[in-house]
Structure formats: C-alpha cells, structure tokens
C-alpha cells in the first residue's frame, strides 16, 4: 500500500515516521516544509499539495488541528476527495466530534472513497514510541485492510463499529483525561499548601487507586514546573468543545466535564493556550493563592 500523510505536527510527524520505518511508501504534505524534509531523510516522499498526495496514495491519513482543517483538506478543489482514487481509504486520526466524522464519511462516499475515523490517545510520548492507542470507526473490511498501518503507529488498536464510533470513543477518553487533569491539579495545590512534599505524595499514591496514566505522565511535570507542551491547553479545550457538542446531540448531560471545560476556557482567556494542558494547575493556584514549588517541596 502507498500511504499518504497530511498534517505533520507534534503528533503527526512521529506517526508518519513510524509508517516510513515500517516499510510503507509514504507521501507527505504539510505547510511546514521543515517537518516534511526531516521525514524525507527517513525515506518519505515530499508532495507540494494535498492533490499530489491523493494522486499517489492508496491510503491517506489526516492528522490536523480541527474539523475545519480536515474539511478543507478533504473538500477543496485540490483536496483529497476530488483527487483521490476510487476505492481508496482516508483515515482521519484528528480529534473531531462524532457528528463531524459521520459527515466526512458520507461526503467521501459520493467519491467512492472509504473513510475511517481513528483518533488516538497517548500524546506525544506514545506517538514517538509508536505505542498509541487507536480507536477506529468505519467499515470492518477496510479496518482489516489497513491494520498493518495502524500497527506501525500503535499497540492498542480497537475497532468499535460504524463511522463515528472511533470519535465517540476518543470523546469518552478525553472526558476521563480532562477531569483527571483537573483533579490532579486540585490535589497538588491542596497537598503542597498543606506542607506535603509532592515527590513523596506521588511515591505514596501513584500505585494505588488514585494512580493513573495521567498522574504518571503529568505529576512529575507539575513537580518540575515543566509546562512545555506535549498536549496543549488549546487542543484539550477544542476536544472539550467536541465533547459538549456530541453530548448535546444525543442528550447526555456532562456536569463535571462542562465545569472542567470552563477551567480550560479560563486558561485560554489568560493567554496560556500554548502551554501543556497540565498547566491548568495555574487556575487552582490562583484560586488558592499558592504556587506549588519547583522540585515539589518548599
């Protein structure tokens, strides 16, 4: 299979790198040509447009910031839909709403192009290691066909059902991640102001019921006050918007998640959108008039 990849950002670049290393003939496009050139050194092929990717690929992956970007890449005159091969597969691995994934699948069907929604979990570290969790919706035959490509990027790969179900699974994932980030931040501010060394707190609880992948990934960064982005606040806030939209569409109240969304909104409004999403601790620090010390202990 010849594989196209559009969107070589924090997540997309290492994902595309694993596909190249997996032996797939890979065609690349991103507005940032530096990222493309780095992957060309690994054996990828640079393309000058989405059209060129479409004309050369049997399977095309999109990994883009928002549904608006995905829609533009798919639907423009030089986009993937109008220039793709009949019978080809487009896999959107971006985080979009369930309804948007269903709309993309319906649109591509008009061009005899298959669509899989396949968002991921694991963030930049797991993208770099090639150990992402991949949640897939769409035709099972097409899922089976492209399974070797997924296996180049991830370890935990699950097909959920029809179009949109992969995105729905990612939404459930992000509910858990976002509320965990808020709970972890609140707990760290409380414990630190109470005089607890955060290093000792992490040692004591990370292996118990309170422990989580979120804690393991983010509490050391909170202790070090390292908020260089792995997952940005603005990206998590966008995901929370998708969550709210999809939940409203099927009539599911999300009182805790919607409160967390407002915490993220506050950090975006205060100019912190580019920081790592663990920086929502800033909200709780301001509320408590206390900043957790670098190193975990005053």
Structural class, please? Answer: alpha/beta
Reported CATH architecture of the largest domain: 3-Layer(aba) Sandwich
Q: Which strand order spans the largest sheet, edge to edge or round the barrel?
A: 3-2-1-4-5-6
Under CATH, the homologous superfamily of the largest domain reads NAD(P)-binding Rossmann-like Domain
For the termini, the CA-CA separation is 56 Å
Tell me the β content: 5-15%
Radius of gyration from the CA trace? Answer: 20 Å
The largest pleated sheet is described as: 6 strands, parallel
CATH topology of the largest domain: Rossmann fold
pLDDT < 50 stretches = none
Structurally, the number of domains stands at 2
* Total helical segments: 14
Strand tally is 9
Mean pLDDT: 96
Order of helices and strands: EHEHEHEHHEHEEHEHEHHHHHH
Q: Tell me the overall shape.
A: globular
Helical fraction: 40-55%
Which tags fit this structure?
14 helices; 298 residues; alpha/beta; Rossmann fold; 13% strand; N-(1-d-carboxylethyl)-l-norvaline Dehydrogenase, domain 2; 2 domains; 9 strands; six-stranded parallel beta sheet
């Amino acid at each position: 299979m010849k594989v196209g990849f559009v969107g070589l950002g924090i997540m997309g670049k290492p994902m595309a790198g694993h596909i190249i290393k997996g032996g797939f003939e890979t065609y690349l496009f991103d507005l940032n040509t530096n990222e493309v050139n780095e992957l060309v050194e690994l054996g990828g092929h640079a393309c000058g447009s989405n059209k060129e990717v479409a004309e050369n690929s049997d399977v095309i992956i999109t990994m883009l910031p928002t549904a608006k970007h995905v829609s533009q890449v798919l639907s423009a005159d030089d986009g993937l839909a109008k220039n793709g091969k009949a019978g080809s597969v487009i896999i959107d691995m971006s985080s979009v709403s369930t309804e948007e994934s269903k709309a993309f699948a319906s649109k591509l069907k008009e061009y005899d192009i298959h669509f899989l929604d396949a968002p991921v979990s694991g963030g930049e570290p797991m993208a770099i290691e090639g150990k992402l969790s991949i949640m897939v919706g769409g035709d099972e035959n097409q899922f089976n066909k492209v399974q070797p490509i997924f296996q180049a990027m991830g370890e935990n790969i699950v097909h959920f059902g029809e179009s949109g179900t992969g995105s729905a699974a990612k939404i459930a994932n992000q509910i858990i991640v976002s509320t965990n980030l808020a709970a972890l931040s609140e707990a760290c501010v409380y414990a630190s102001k109470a005089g607890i060394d955060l290093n000792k707190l992490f040692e004591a609880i990370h292996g118990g019921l309170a422990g989580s992948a979120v804690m393991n990934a983010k509490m050391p960064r909170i202790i070090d006050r390292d908020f260089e982005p792995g997952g940005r606040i603005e990206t998590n806030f966008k995901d929370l918007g998708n969550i709210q939209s999809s939940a409203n569409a099927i009539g599911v109240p999300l009182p805790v998640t919607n409160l967390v969304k407002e915490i993220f909104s506050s950090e975006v409004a205060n100019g912190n959108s580019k920081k790592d999403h663990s920086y929502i601790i800033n909200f709780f620090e301001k509320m408590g008039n206390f900043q957790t010390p670098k190193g975990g202990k005053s």
